Amino acid sequence: MDVLAEEGVSGLRIEVLAKRLKVTKGSFYWHFQDRRDLLMAVLEVWKDGRIRDIIKQTRNQRPGEELERIYHVIDVYSAGRNRRGMQIELAVRDWARRDPEAAAVVAEVDDIRLRCARDLFLACGVPFDEASSRCMLLYAYVFGISLMVYDRFDGNAAQLKRDISDLIARSSTTGAREVNQNTTAAPRRSHPETASPSQPSALPSTAAPPSASPPNSQVSEH
Question: What range defines the domain where residue 165 resides?
Fold first, then answer.
């Protein structure tokens, strides 16, 4: 998987791997018939690992903590410390663009990924169509933020990510379920350089929902 992350599928060649692992090429053929057999084994390892982790991260431990689990999923999979996992993910997706078998594996993982996230939103009482939209938005954010450099855009990256997490996780339905929880609203960012006091916003302002801090997350590969 390290080779896949660093060099992509083109680096998964028996000669290269044998040299890197300091073994003979012949030893590879005790385990794999050919390079294609090796590639399919790598795909299977990636798929099994992804599905196990998705289920682990999205499984709700106790009833009533579904919203907290949504924040957990956003935090784990958007964390900068998850860079290696994202490198592997992007390498597999690039591979899938040119290989139908790899594309089928990615589609299977994505289906499980989205269904598990949708189940969390449904457990919060979110309607089915909205739950489907929000789980898609969740992963669009997770994958998108891994490709962007945004430090210059907003100096308070931590608050920016908390705000985005709120937008993804909270609807009027999920917010209503938090009435009995002791939460404190995080201060919202203001940008006086982009807003003129003499020119009111074209959109009516709405009260920001209270921000729930995501639980402590365990480092996970995407």
Answer: 43-176
Residue closest to 222 by CA, chosen among 8, 44, 11, 51 = 51
Kindly compute the dihedral angle of the four CA atoms of residues 26, 32, 34, 40, in this order, to the nearest 10 degrees: -150
**Per the structure block, which two tokens stand in for 180?**
């009995």
Q: How many domains does the chain have?
A: 1
Which percentage of the chain shows pLDDT scores above 70? Answer: 75
List the one residue out of 6, 32, 5 whose CA is nearest residue 18.
32
d(CA 82, CA 219): 7
Residue 90's SS3 state is helix
pLDDT in tens, 1-12: 888 888 888 888
157 within some domain: yes
Count other Cβ atoms within 10 Å, centred on residue 10: 12
Q: How far apart are CA 79 and CA 57, in angstroms?
A: 14
Residues in the chain: 222
In Å, how far are 19, 45, 94, 113, 130 from 41, measured between CA atoms?
Answer: 19, 6, 17, 21, 37
- Look at the alpha carbons of 74, 222, 81, 147 in this order and tell me if their dihedral is positive or negative: negative
